[in-house]
Amino acid sequence: MKKLESGWEEIKTEKGPKVGLLQMRFDFLKNPRNEKEIKALVIEGRDAVNVIAVTKDKKIILVKQLRFGTRDVSIEPPGGLMEENETKLEAAKRELREETGYTGSEWKFLVTRASQPVFMNSYIHTFILKDAKLTHPKELDE
After folding, report:
1. CB 100 within 8 A of CB 94
2. How far apart are CA 43 and CA 92, in angstroms?
3. Fewest beta carbons within 10 Å, which of 49, 70, 90, 91?
4. Catalytic site residues?
């Protein structure tokens, strides 16, 4: 068994089904508080980025997107999954340009946070762009 920093022990890990871009796995862990074993589902996915883009006249650029989990339209900062071998900043610039047509040069990294630490192993990296300008047509995914 492998001891984790939290004091929990990893008994074993099993690969689960792959669903689209996500790979499932099952971690079998031992709780140090009560010595009970649990089976935890972990969703493995790529990291993502999002961008707080502010125009010269102090407007924040947001996008409307249908979110399948809630089956509702969400209003949120532009962003998305990072491509393989892409830096966080490259992904942020690409996602902003594709989803909004905005670009700029005053980029600043803000924070990295866990996507859904309860059941996912990926992170979201957030950037701020201070001089967002509409320079391109949108390039939306299907």
Report:
1. no
2. 23
3. 70
4. 142
